[in-house]
Amino acid sequence: MRITVLCADLGVRVPGDKGASVHLLSITRAFIDAGHEVLLVGVAGRDPAPPDVPAVLFPHPGRATGLRREMRKLHFNTSLPMRVGESIRAFRPDVIYERLALFGTAGAAVARALDVPHVLEVNALLAREESDWRGLHMGKLARRLEEQVLRSATLRVAVSAEVAADIREVAPDPPLEVVPNGLDADRFRSLPPRAVAREAHGIDPDAVVLGFVGALRPWHGVGHAIDALRELPADTILVVAGDGPIRADLEERARAQGVSDRVRFLGQLPHSEIPGVLATFDIALAPYPALERFSFSPLKAYEYIGAGLPVVASDVGQLREIVTEEAGLLVEPSNPTAIAEACTRIRRQSDSWVARSQAARAHVLATHGWTGRANDIIAALEEVSPHAAVA
After folding, report:
1. Cα separation of 178 and 317, whole Å?
2. With 90 as the cut, is the pLDDT of residue 106 above it?
3. Where are the domains of the chain?
4. Please, are residues 318 and 255 in contact by the beta-carbon 8 Å criterion?
5. What is the DSSP string of 340-385?
6. How far apart are CA 376 and CA 264, in angstroms?
7. What is the distance between the alpha carbons of residues 308 and 327, in angstroms, rounded to a whole number?
8. Does residue 275 sit in helix, strand or coil?
9. Which pLDDT value is given to residue 385?
10. Which CATH class name applies to 2-182+369-385?
């Protein structure tokens, strides 16, 4: 099958180290590994395009805020079909696979023009998410366009059951498949020894290391992990790999709690370095706060488990399925004491957790790789689209 993977989200660059960028490249490579011909259309990152992925990438128009930011997103989406049309027509795709973007009409327009199926990957209802976390000047337009593409797609692919439920509220039809995120299993099969990894990152070889990987944003709950340090022994530290708009607030929170000397911020790192960072951890954290809506399919959870780490995660959403009894412990969201108690329990039972974590790791590496996810998507498309099945 010939697949055009399209992402018109200006916040998702190729290549890039944020979770959305990792997801986009991972599912694209997975289609290639599954034997399909792929053309990726998206926004260029700061680094050169990956040589193993055929791509047409457009420069980012520059950062903006408020209404100007929304206008740039809208213009990029409405102009993209014309800008990339010749390249896509020459590629002759059998299907357009699009990651939903705010004001994201480009994939639907291209699929309609070429008379091919349109598969819409939905990681969240972005008009709602943007309104909740940033505020939208053109919220009514964003919701209307989002509803249109949700209703017109050949197949919608939701990353979680919660996202699927949100989609059905807005657009009950057409068909909808839940395909969670996954991990690059090959990348996590071989990790450096802990001592070597800690030396590389300047981390005390004798410390008990709690770790978090991801963007520093309010909905990731890193502040609760910082608070938990006050209830743990002095040899326990928190290592944070990632950056974001609330880093300064988190650094101040650590100072206020008297634990700033026990929190290490590594900053934003290339995703290729994440396995080495995870090798420094004793326990991995996904400390999401209590949210009105939790619909994420956390990449970090699969990667934590794929690195053989016990996980302490909030008892919410898809994490209940990912973090099994072998993989870790679930705790009440927004509860630093519960985080500290779970970490203490794992440390006290460290020998048994080594065996459990390795069993969980073997299962995740065998069953949750990206190629399997790509095959699930293609199988779902072939069920609903005779055109795709013939291709």
Report:
1. 14
2. yes
3. 2-182+369-385, 185-367
4. no
5. HHHHHHHHHTHHHHHHHHHHHHHHHHHH-BHHHHHHHHHHHHHHH-
6. 39
7. 8
8. helix
9. 81
10. alpha beta
Q: Is 135 helix (H, G, I), strand (E, B) or coil?
A: coil
Do 285 and 213 form a contact (C-beta atoms < 8 A)? no
The per-residue pLDDT for 390 is 47
pLDDT exceeds 50 at position 79: yes
Identical fold between 2-182+369-385 and 185-367: yes
For residues 203 and 205, give the distance between their C-alpha atoms in angstroms, rounded to a whole number.
Answer: 6
Q: How far is CA 185 from the centre of its chain?
A: 15
CB-based contact 148:105 (threshold 8 Å)? yes
Q: What gap in Å lies between CA 23 and CA 35, rounded to an integer?
A: 19
- Element housing 317 (H / E): none
Cα separations in angstroms, 12 against 21, 78, 332: 5, 17, 31
Residue 387 pLDDT greater than 80, yes or no: no
* Rounded distance between C-alpha atoms, residue 179 and residue 99, angstroms: 13
Query: Cβ atoms within 10 A of the Cβ of 273, count?
Result: 14
CB within 8 Å of 155: residues ≥ 6 apart: 117, 118, 119, 120, 174, 175, 176, 177, 380, 381, 384, 385
Specify the pTM.
0.94
- Closest alpha carbon to 280 in 193, 353, 194: 194
Q: What's the Cα-to-Cα distance from 369 to each of 57, 188, 213, 277, 304, rounded to whole Å?
A: 26, 10, 19, 20, 14
CA distances 288 to 136, 330, 358, Å, are: 24, 11, 24
For 326, the token pair is 């072998």
| 3-state secondary structure (DSSP) of residue 155 | strand
For residue range 41-63, list pLDDT tens digits in order: 999 999 999 999 999 999 999 99
Q: Regarding the domain with residue range 185-367, which homologous superfamily does it belong to in the CATH classification?
A: Glycogen Phosphorylase B; (3.40.50.2000)
Q: How many Cα atoms are found within 13 Å in the side-chain-facing hemisphere of 334?
A: 6
Neighbours of 164 (CB within 10 A): 17
Residues 105, 126: contact at Cβ < 8 Å?
Answer: no
Question: How distant is the alpha carbon of residue 219 from its chain centre?
Answer: 13
Reading the block at residue 334, the tokens are 């927004």
**Amino acid of residue 185:** A
